[in-house]
Amino acid sequence: MSFLELKDVNVGFGPASSRTEVLSNINLSVKEKEFVAIIGFSGAGKSTLMSLLAGLQAPSSGSVTMNGKPMQGPGPDRGLMFQNYSLLPWLSVFDNIKLAVDRVFPELSKSEKADKIHHYIKMVKLDHAPDKKPHELSGGMRQRASLARTLSLDPEILLLDEPLSALDALTRSEIQDQILNIWETDKRTVVMITNDVDEAVLMADRIIPLTMGPKATLADEFEVRMERPRDRHTLNDHPEFMRLKSEITQFMMDLNEESKGLRKNDIVPMPDIRPKDFALPTATPRLKNRHSQPGKPKSAA
Amino acid sequence: MNFLKTIKYPILKGIDFSGLTFLSPVVRLCYGEEPAVQIKKIVQWIIIPIIAILIFIFAWNQASDNIHTKSGRLPSPKETLLAYSAIDTFAEYEALKEEAYLMSGNERISELEVTEKLIAAIEPIVESTTEAVKTTKAAYAEKIEARIAPLDEERKKTDAAFKEAQASRKAALAEMSEALTPGDTAAYEAFLAAVKDDVSKTDEEKDKVRALKSEIDDIRDEKSKDVAKALYAQTQAAEELQFLQKKVDQLTRDNRSEKVASAKVEMSEEFATLTTLTGADAFKTARGIAKDEARLVKTETSDYAGAKTLWYQTRRSILCVFTGFLLGSAIAIPIGILCGLNSTFMAAMTPFVAIFKPVSPIVWLPICLIIASAYVPAPEDSTLMNWMWEDAWFLKNYDINPAFIASACTVALCSLWATLANTALGVASIDKDHMNVARVLKLGFWSRLFKIVIPSALPLIFAGLRISLGVGWMVLIAAELLSSSEGIGKFVWDQFNNGASDSFAKMVVVVFIVGFIGLLLDRIMIVFQRLVSFEGGAAGV
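^ Those are the sequences you sent over. The predicted structure of the assembly is below.
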């Protein structure tokens, strides 16, 4: 039984005459408590796909269902973690999370709410900076605050939109571990969009490539059959990891080549012209000539 | 020492926050941080501006020496300073008179004694200064006459000589005209030439006499510094004497407790009369007593009714500008938010904004005055006005009247546009991601408004408010000038109509006061703006 399902979904923009199809014929079904990674090149329409899953955007055609019911608009049951953090800059980390907690658990008392917020802050290891404003935090800390806010919604499904793409390699692996830890202790459905093959293989149960846009669609999936917890240090020697990594990378590169091939027709041949002389014309005599041009009145004087 | 170190960064942060950044190199220098760099900055941001100010004062002084017109002359910096102290002294005198008005009992009597002693002390000074003015004037007149006498002699002499010459030329010409024979062209030409020569000579001579005369007039017009000094001393003494005499009035005849006491005596006398009367007379007298009693109650709580000082007018202007500003903001911010949220509403509002924005305060003011006086046709009978005069917190000291309300409305109407435009822009340009957060959280309209929209637009709203307050302050002075609402604008108008010797100088003083308060208001708004802005900077203080 699939938990989240996309059936024959198409998304396009613009009027019929000059319509841009971003996604076409998308079929995706995510089981409960499953970690799915969608991998694609930038510009392929990954964020559009995420907006669809979050309900921020409705498909042009096709259906998006969750728990068998058609999706209507966004909601806190789908915790979307934005690519660029989307923390409210005028609120502290605590208050940013409080905004979510207030919305989802209005019945809790003030101290219960505070406990909950501190719980999530601790979970992402930000307990030293709950009162900091987003601009006082590093990129990694902001992303962790954003993660804490998303988790605090206690969503049925976590939607991670390239959560780590803006981070440096070290912070990235740290937060990967944190997300995995949290997921493993508190299993829930996760859909993550990424452009990093290693990340996808390390974290996901299934990896689904998104082909190049326009008219991007989902390609055949790769199943990751590696035991959890996965250790990033020994993973590099794991034969399954090596195999998957090289297969997916190869697949993605082929996709890239393919799309390049499609674009080959766009190359316009330039005419074979050789310029004769690049030397500048001598400037001074010409200027003088202009002043003493015969037949022109000297109105300037 | 440690304490000093710990307060260093809070001090610097506070300086940065309040926008007084020119002070931070001084603080850093005091802490011995990179002295060379700090001294360079101090030179650039403190010394150079001071030099510029000195140059300005010097140029102003030069200009005031040269700009003389029929209606007055540009006051010099010194005269402006004297005008400032005159304004200040006037305010001080008014305060002392008020104090005297409210005194009673022994306090009043001892104060009266002191004041009378002061009068006795100053009277001879007034006399002596008046005498000094007379003698200096006479001495100066003598000096002038001595200088003029030879010139006048010369003028008379030349005048007589010229008149003689003119008469003889006239006689010669008459002779020539007699000797003319019609048809003799050469003779006529010679005659015409002689006449022309006479005319030009006469003009020349007149010019010479006129030049001498104007030289004499110039000497007469010269102002003696000694006379001016003597006059100034006399005016000072006379003014102080006048003040002291008026203070005596406030301590005796016009004193509140004295008035109450005499009214009580009068009433008891009236009552004695009443006890002897019957019938219609008794009725009439009793009514008189009842009326007097009501008046007495008013007198007992009455305030000193003196002239308004510039400081009072300044405070009232500030009150008025904030009233108008708050009124304008209360209109502009909600409308701006609606405009930013809803493009249809924005489209509906655009024509009004476009048409009303450029309207000058001079046009708004009469309309506001008419509307304000239509709403409050008889201020004395209006409950609201009476409440504002008698009970309303600090407002009761400021005599809120329709002119005040009209001025405040004019300020509101002229200043709200900047806030409106900035609020609409701030709300319309909310980060799409922040709105997505609101959508994911499924926030309702109000919590979306108060938790996402307004906080995100606040920095721009405050930028708009800052512009609005600046515009409002400029508009207010003009509005007060026209509406005669007691305030800085009215002070300027009174001075303009007054035409005393220091009126112009007082207006120049007002220029600086208005400028300084405008600067202060702007600084306050900058601090607020920084308090609400959230990205980077010193937003955390």
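The two ends of chain B are 23 Å apart (CA to CA). Residues 255-307 of chain B form one domain.

Shout if you want it in another format.
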